[in-house]
Each structure stands twice: as C-alpha cells, then as structure tokens.
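Figure 2 data, in text form.
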Amino acid sequence: MTMVSTDGNGDSHKFNKYAAASSVVASLICIIFGYDTGVMSGAMIFIKEDLKIDDVEIEILAGILNVCALLGSLFAGRTSDFIGRRYTIVVSAIIFLVGAVLMGYGPNYPVLLAGRCISGIGVGFALMIAPVYSAEISSAKARGLLSSLPELCISLGILSGYVSNYFFGKLTLKLGWRLMLGVAAIPSFVLAFAILKMPESPRWLGMQGRLGEAKRTLLLVCNSEEEAERRFRDIRVAAGFDENTKEEFVKPAHNSRGEGVWKELLLRPTPAVRRILIAAIGIHFFEHAVGVEAVILYGPRIFKKAGIKSKDKLLLATVGVGIIKTIFILIATSLIDRVGRRRLLLISTSGIVAALAVLGFSLTIVENSKTELLWALTLSIVSTYAYVAFFNVGLAPVTWVYSSEIFPLKLRAQGMAIGVAVNRLMNALISMTFISIYEAITIGGAFFMFCGISVVAWFFFYFLLPETKGKPLEEIEALFSKGSKRKNSADIETQTVNNG
C-alpha cells in the first residue's frame, strides 16, 4: 500500500496551532533537564568547597545523572508503549520533582548523589518521550520544527541554569547551591498537571485500536478533514488494521503495548530496521562523542584554563555559552524543515571540526605559555562559542528529530529508547572522564581528540543517513531499504520543488 503524503494538500502546509501548543507543553519537560545540566556546571564550584569533595567525586556527581538516564530511557520506551506518551511525560515530571527536592535538601554528598540519580531517571524519560510525542502529533511539513522544540527547551533550561548560577552564587555558600538545585521542583510540579490538558498521541491511540479517539485527535491537530483522513488512513495501515474500517475500536495486535519489540529491533530485524537502528545509535553516539558535554558542564574550568580567574567572570563567560546555544537552536528550528536534516547535519559537523581544531590549538598555546596571552584567551573563548554555535545549529536538534522519526510505528518508542540510552552513556563517559582525560593528555589534546572523532562523525552521517525532510512517518522506513537511499533522497528534493 502506497501511503499518501500529507504534503500533497495546501492545508497541510499551514501551521496548526493546536499541534504546536501540544508539542510546546510536552517539550517543557526538557527545560527542567537543561536547567539541571546548566546549573550543575556552576554549582559544582560551590559544592566542592562546601562539602569538601575531590575531583573524582565531582566527576561522579556530574556523570551519574546520565548513567541513571540511560536506565530511565530504557524503562521509558516500554512505559510509553504501555500507558501512553502523555502519561509518560507526567511520570517524568514527578521523578524530576523528587530529585530536585533531594538535591535542594542535600545535607551531604550521598543524599546529593541520590537526588542527582533520581533526576537522571527523569532525564531518561524526558529525552525519550518529548521528541517522540512531538513527531507523532505533527504533520510531515512541521515535524522538524516541532520535534526540535525539546532541544530548544534544553537550551533555554541550560541558559536559565547558568543565570541561576550567577545570581544564587551571590548568596551564602551553604544556601546558594542548594537553591540552585532545589528550585527545579517548582516547574516540575506545575508541569505534571499542565500535561494532563494535552491530547494523547494519535499514533499511539491507533496502535491500541482506539481509532475513534485517534480520529478525533487528528481533527484537532490537522488543518482540514481531508488531511486528518489521510493521516488517519496511514496510521490504520501502519498499525496493521484495514484502512477502510469505520469501527471506533478494533482489537489491537498482540504487541500493541511493546511486547516482542526488542526481538524485532535486536534479534530479528529486517534489513531496513537494522539500518535504521545503526543510524539512530550512530547519531546519538556522535552527538556526545564530539565533546559537547565537556564544554557545557565544564565550561568554567575551560575558561579558567584559558586565563579567566575570577568566579564572576567565569560564570558570565559560561552564560555566554548558554546564550549562543539558545540563539543557534532557534535558528536551527527555522531551517530544519527547509534546508533538511542531512544538509544541516553535514554543515554543522564541518563547523564543529574547524572550531575544535582552533580551540585545541589556542588552549595548547595558553597551557605552554609562561605569560598571559590575550590573543590566545580571546581565541579560546571565540572558538568555544563557535563550537557551541555549529553544534546547536545542526547536530543537537537533528539528532532528536531524526531518531524520533525514522523508526516504524510499533518500534518507535523502544527504538528511540535505545538511541537515548546510547546518548546518555556517551554523555556519562564524557562527563565522568573529561577531567581525567585532560590531565592525561592536556586540555588542548582533549579537544584535538574530539576534533578527530568529529571527522569520523561527518563520514558516518554522509554515507549512512538519508534525508527524511517532508516524508510522512509511515513512509520513512522505505528510505532505509537497500538501494533506495539515493533514489528517495532525489524524490524528496523533487517533491519539495514541485510542492514549492
């Protein structure tokens, strides 16, 4: 059965405000994760001084969030297949609330670590479910924009964390960092209730055989009855039902709640699913293997190595990272559905390679100089900002958009969960080893290493990731069929020109 593209009708090209509002609310969960990441970069300075902990304990504190997020993401995939996408976001908000309260209390290192770990489980849930929900509720035309909103929210969260560092850092040592970490409980509490006003994903409803509810949701998130009917027909076929059925409820397949998905993904995948899984794992692996966590989490240390001495200036320089990150994520959201995922990814990775090479060079010069070099300090800051800009204009948002849209419907949640688990594993490895790496090979050498990994990433993206721009979710699996990559990429370009 050939799926009908939702881009074939003029109504589909309009921006649906209800779908956008639902995606925005779902994506807000990622602000809390971003805040946790950003605020910890500055809070660690004060935590180390207050609790008298060493660098190894700091690395563990930084990285444990992502180790626990790895576990959280794997549970989230099956959870979202079982209870639905919307209630999985509620679960994530509640977990964040508990973690924030524990960290804000933080009388000692073990309690702080426990709170950080619980928040990590919430991170795994949030990172897996927000892009999947946004991808499933949006049209093909707006999917790139709406699916990149979680990454935008992460950036806004990181920026708010950096700003929180600066202002709360002026309070007393014992109170300041606890408020930095504990204040995240407030948005978690509010969001847990706000999410209940959202509709459930029509694709999840369809997979459960709740066709009447799926159709009513589609009428809300589509711009016309014709568009809703086309998307509804595609969902019925993808879920394994008769495309012409008029029943409100149809008994779903035995694996509608995620049973047997791991076998289809890992043990007996079709060639297309195997290529999809490699693409998803690869893009999540490289998102953090290029070293972004070293810059986001250890920004103050990098700027200190570059020559900035005072705490206020270190935190202000780090705020600059958050501002650049947010600006370029905003630019990316406007480009991703026009330029395309693949092209944006390759441009972004090329810029990352260049910026890391310059950053490695400038930090090496600073480290080996016996006098302060203003030009090297300036070059270090500029290249750090350039790295953040290139990363966030492509690799950051495309990772989440791409991996949330390439899996077939029944495999999407748990396939995405595997990608997120790899993402968090790499994040944890960088978070927990960066200090040890730069002490072993110098800080400049560490960024030269990330530069080399980025070159490998560029070739991986070039050869293994076909373009998905403008394709309905139900058609994307065909892009990964043997020999269809070039053909389908060309078809997309032709379709874009024709629709334009």
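Caption note: The two ends are 26 Å apart (CA to CA).
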